[in-house]
Amino acid sequence: MGFSNKELLRADWQWVGLQNYVTLFKDEHFLSALGNTFVFVVGTVPITTILALGMALLVNRKFRGRGIFRAGYFFPSITSMVVIALIFQELYRRDGYVAMLATMIGLTPPEYGFLIDKSTALYSIMAMDIWMSVGYYMLIFLAGLKSIPDELYEAARMQGASFFHQLRYITIPILRPVALFIIVINSIKSFQVFVEIYVMTGGKSDTMSMVYFVYENGVTKAFQFGYASAAAIILFAIIGVFSIMQFSILKRREPIW
Amino acid sequence: MVAIWTDPAIKPTIREMVSDFEQQNPDIKVKLTDLTWSHGHEKIVLAFASGRGPDVVELGSDWIAQFAENGQLTDISADIASDSAEYQGWSMANYNGRIMAYPWFLGTRVLFGNLDLMAKAGYDDTFVPVSWPQLLEASKKISALGPKYYGWGSNAPEKHRLYKKYLPFLWSAGGQILTDDGKLCVIASTYAIDGLTIYKMLHDSAGYVAKQRGIEDAFLDGKVGFIISGDWLLKRIEKENRKINLLSTLIPGPTLPGRSFKGGEFLAINAKSEKKEAAMKFVRFITSPEQQIKFCKANRSANPSSVKAQQDPYFASNDHIQTFIKQIRLAKHPPVDPDWVYMEGIIEQAVEDVVFNGEPVAESLRKARHEIEKQRK
C-alpha cells in the first residue's frame, strides 16, 4: 500500500514506486511529526526509566504503608489514558493548577495555557506521559529487585560496601535485562504516541506525532491510504532500528550473577 | 428497511419522527444509527469505502463535495425541481451544477454580548457594536474592568473551529477564499489581511483564550464580554438555567454589520442504495415544514431550511432566534470543493501562526495561499 497512490474512496489506484517516500521527506508536516516523535521518545524514555528505578528502590525498602505507596504510584497506569488526558487538559489551562503552581514558585506560566503555547505544549504532554507510565515500569523494576538474592547484598555489606556501591555493582548490573525490556517497550510505546495528542491538542501547537500524521492523512482528512501507509512503514523501520540499537548497546555486557 | 445515520444528540426527536413516518408508511421500516459529529466523518468514509453505507446519511455541508467528487452520493437534482423555491441552502449542496443532498437545517454564528459587563464598562442598554472599531473599543473597556474580565472570547487552536471564527472577518472585509470561478486562491488579499489584523487586535487587546466550549463557559460565567457562537448556546442557557443578561446581534463588519459563517446539516442518499425511492420519501418527510418546526422547537434550532417553516410564529417569538434568522441572510459558506478539508486546515494554521505564534499577517496568509494553490494543482 505504501508504494501506491491508493485513496480510500477511490477504486482506481496505481503503483507509484518510491514517490510517497520522496514526497514525505519534503513534507514539512511529516518532518515536524518526525522531529516531535523523536523529542518525545528521547525526552520521556530515559526520565521514565530513571524515575521508575528510583521509585522501585524506594518502595522496595521496608516501611509502614509501603503497599499504599506502591498502589498509589501504579494507579495512573490502570486509569484510562483518555480520562487522564482530559484531567491534565484542565490542569494545563491558563488558570489551571499547573499555572498557579508555576506562579507560586516564581515562574511565568505561558500566557494562554501550557497546551496552546508551542514552546510548552509537547513538553507538557511528555510530562503527563512520564507521570502516567512511571508506576507501571516501577512495578517491573520491583519484580526485578525481588529476584536479586539477599546474600549478594549481605556479602557486599560485610565487606563495607555503601548503598551506592551496592547499587552500582549489584543492583544495576543485575537489573540490566529488566532495564532493557523497559527501555525497548517504552520506546516502542512512545514512538506510537497518539491518544494524548488526539485528546489534548489535536495535533495543534506543534505537537503532531508520526502516528497522528498517519491518522490524519489516512483517515480524518484525506483518506490517502498510500501516503499514510508509507509514513507508517517509515515509523515501523525507525522502531525496528531503534530496538536493535538498544538491544546491541544494552546487551554488550552480560549481567554478573 | 431504510438505514439512517444521524447525530445521537437529536435522536429523541428523530425517533419520534421515524415513528410517525412508519405509521404513515407501513411498508417502510427505518433503522436509526448514531453518528457523532466528532467521529462521523471517519465512520461515513469507512462505510462508503466498504460499500455498505446507510441509505440516508446526515452530512455536514462541508463534507458534501468530497463525497460527491468520489461518486458516493446520489444526484437528486431531478427530484427537487419542485422544492427548489421552498427550501434554502441548495448552494451548499451544489457540486458542479448537481444537487447532491437535501438541506435540512441550517446554521450560522452571531455575536453574543453580556449586557451587564457592557453596562459596567459604561455603555447604556441602547449600545450595540455594529462595526469593528466599536467592538474593539467595547472589548477593551470590558477587559479594563479588572483581571478577571475579558472583552473577547478568542478561540484556541482547535480543528474545525478556529477557521470558522476568522472567516466572518475575512468575508466582512470583502475578502474571499477562492475567486468566484473557483480557480484561484485569493486568501492573501488586502481584505483578508484587514480581516485577520482586526481578529488579532481583538485577541491581543482583550482575548480570553480557550477552546470553543471553554470560551462559552467563561462567557456564561460572566467573565467574557463578547463571543461568536451558534444557536446551541441558547439551548445551553435554557438547559443549564443560566442567568445571563444576553445581547445577540449581527457579526460586526468594518463599518456596518458584516458577514457570518453559514453551514448546515444535509440529508444525502447513498449512490449504492437499493432503496432510493423509499430513502427519498423519508428525506422529504423529515424535511417537511411541519417536521422541521417540531425539530427546531425541540432542539432550539433557529434556522430551518424550509421557507414555510421559517414563518412559524415560534421563530418570531424569541429575539435571539430572530438574530439568527437575520444573520443567515448575511452569511456565506466556504467553497463547495473536494479539497476544502485541506484548505480548512491550511487557513486554520495561518490563523494560529498569526494569533499565537506572532507571524506577520501578510506573510502567513501568503504562505497559506501558496499551500492551497499547491494542494489544488
What does the model show?
- The complex is a heterodimer of chains A (257) and B (377).
- By secondary structure, chain A is an all-alpha fold.
- Chain A has a single domain (19-250), classed as Orthogonal Bundle (MetI-like fold), CATH 1.10.3720.10.
- Chain A has eleven helices and no strands.
- Chain A has helices at 19-24, 28-60, 66-74, 81-91, 97-104, 118-146, 150-158, 163-191, 195-200, 210-220, 225-250.
- The longest helix of chain A has 33 residues, at 28-60.
- Chain A is globular.
- Chain B has 377 residues and is an alpha/beta fold.
- Chain B folds into two domains: 2-107 and 263-332, D-Maltodextrin-Binding Protein, domain 2, CATH 3.40.190.10; 110-250 and 339-376, 3-Layer(aba) Sandwich (D-Maltodextrin-Binding Protein, domain 2), CATH 3.40.190.
- In chain B, strand 1, helix 1 (11-24) and strand 2 form a beta-alpha-beta unit.
- In chain B, helix 5 (132-143) packs parallel to helix 7 (190-206), helix 6 (162-172) crosses helix 7 (190-206) and helix 15 packs antiparallel against helix 16.
- Chain B starts with a strand and ends with a helix.
- The mean pLDDT of chain B is 91.
- The interface between A and B is medium-sized, with 21 and 23 residues.
List the helices and strands and how they pair.
The complex is a heterodimer of chains A (257) and B (377).
Chain A lengths: L18 H6 L3 H33 L5 H9 L6 H11 L5 H8 L13 H29 L3 H9 L4 H29 L3 H6 L9 H11 L4 H26 L7
Helix pairs in contact in A: 2-6, 2-8, 2-10, 3-6, 6-8, 8-11, 10-11
Chain B lengths: L1 E5 L4 H14 L5 E5 L5 H11 L5 E5 L3 H6 L24 E2 L2 E2 L2 E7 L1 E5 H6 L11 H12 L6 E6 L6 H11 L17 H17 E4 L1 H9 L3 E6 L2 H8 L6 E4 L10 E10 L6 H11 L2 H11 L7 H4 L2 H4 L2 H11 L1 E2 L7 H18 L3 H16 L1
Parallel strand pairs in B: 1-2, 1-3, 8-9, 8-10, 12-13
Antiparallel strand pairs in B: 3-12, 4-5, 6-12, 7-10, 7-11
Helix pairs in contact in B: 5-7, 6-7, 15-16
